[in-house]
Structures
1.
Amino acid sequence: MTRMNQDDYEVLLAILDEGSLTAAARSLGRTLQSVSRAIAALERDLNTTLFHRTTRRVQPTAACLKFATRLRPALGEIEAARDELVEHATQLRGDIRVGAPTAFGAEFVAPLVAQFLAIHENVRAELVLAEQHLDLAKANIDLVVRLGHLPDSNLRARQVGTLRRVVFGAPAYFASRGYPTHPSELAAHDCVLRQHALRETWRFNRAGGAVEVAGRFRSTSALACNSAAAAGAGIGRAPIFQVQKLLDAGEVVTVLDSFEPEPVPVHLLWAEGRPVARRVRALIDFLAVRLVPGMGAAVT
């Protein structure tokens, strides 16, 4: 007995479903001659007549119908097994190291990475949080989430949105020093600085322009700066997600809302010039459509 090709069995089922050899050939994308040869080969292999043929139609025999009832689920199982094998072979697997700013990463990146891992069970991820920008090569980082404008670099970047930024301070500070009504008035206030320098330039929308500010408290830690502003050390400026809880609790209030500062760009970065693993590319696409939209009012 010849071992038949699965395609020949599918021809038999197509003829039963379509009602004729011509219609079966059309549905399978084959020629009428190849369909006829397939049925003839099946009949030789099985040593039985499967169809009674006339010039106008084909009529399945009882043996054909009985054979088809066993054949159809068997072919379905073969197809399911093939799909399962292909899916397993193409599953994402391996490790991903993701970098992100400390507060932003803990609140917004970590839950999304966890969701990604729930979908891809053979992937492991490490989230590296840092206040300062991470060097992808030195830290062996596959993908980093970065807030702010990007300097020229050899990294590939995908901007996924922008975040609102606000100017804020403690009610007690404003009760003592007054509320600024225009960004230019910040020059006369203590401002909380996020750099090593003694002065910073804060940029606002077109109506507010740019103003150089100074203050007595500075830190490279966003958490420290926001806490200091809430304690009355001066006026702070931050992405709203960092101070939303302070605002909700009434510990700080925003000022200069009509001159809202320039928004903060959010980028995904990865190394240029080296292959990107499928698992990393999948996480990039996953974060790109979920990261900023999931932040609600923080988005501009």
2.
Amino acid sequence: MAVKKVEAVINGQTYTLTLNSATGKYEATITAPAKSSYNQTGHYYPVTVKATDDAGNVRTVDASDSSIGSSLQLKVKEKTAPVGTITYPTASAYIINNKPIFRFKITDDDSGVNPNTIGITIDSGSKITGSAIVKTAVSGGYECTYTPDTALSDGSHTIKIDASDNDGNAAVQKSVTFKIDTVPPALSIASPANGLVTNRAACTVTGTTNDTTSSPVKVTVKLNSGSAESVTVGSDGGFSKVLTLTEGSNTITIVATDSAGKSTTVTRTVKLDTSAPVIKSVTLTPNPVDAGKTFVISVEITD
């Protein structure tokens, strides 16, 4: 008898093999499945070979065959790496919490993300992996969070995230640089002095401000119940604002706010008094007075 037909079944598709007269073997060139075999049972696509002779006898072997089954396990690996995205913080963000919760996402639409490879690195420290990173399974991968055990210092920091899929493809490392700022800006008011009493309606507020981490600093000045007005701050941190006082007690509120949103407030109370004293009465006692003797002058004044 002679072999009439040889077929292979892979991933639900049937392929016909032809005899290679040079090798004496039945062969076919087949395009591998488009998806990785990692998520298949046993991490392989089972291959079934069926041979039929011209008498109609059929022999079938598959991956479960005790003799050659291992050679009928087609392992397919994807070549597309997973994708990482950092969702918090954003680039150049200012953060007032020195133990921020970092958030990022790793996805892979084929073999899937290997959770053991998910890592985060802070600045030049060691990569952090394992249970320190909270991983929540989502479609195609994981939503991840990590909170530093040790407070980060004020200033600039960079985080980097890494991961690979189950076929060993490494994602392109993603990074983001941000700033920690837990200290409000410095604010010093040179004038007016608190409690100043003046007869001049024009009052100039002068001062300096700065913030080591989050410059430039914005300054607003508010008089009494009016609106807070922005003031130009010079490169040296100096600023000034001319106000027009109202008669009586005035409250001046100066607020310096850094780029992280932290603020420092200074309040000054200034009294405007433009009314001269009123002399209501004068009494000289005794009057007339003897030469060389003393007398008392008594003056009644209101203000």
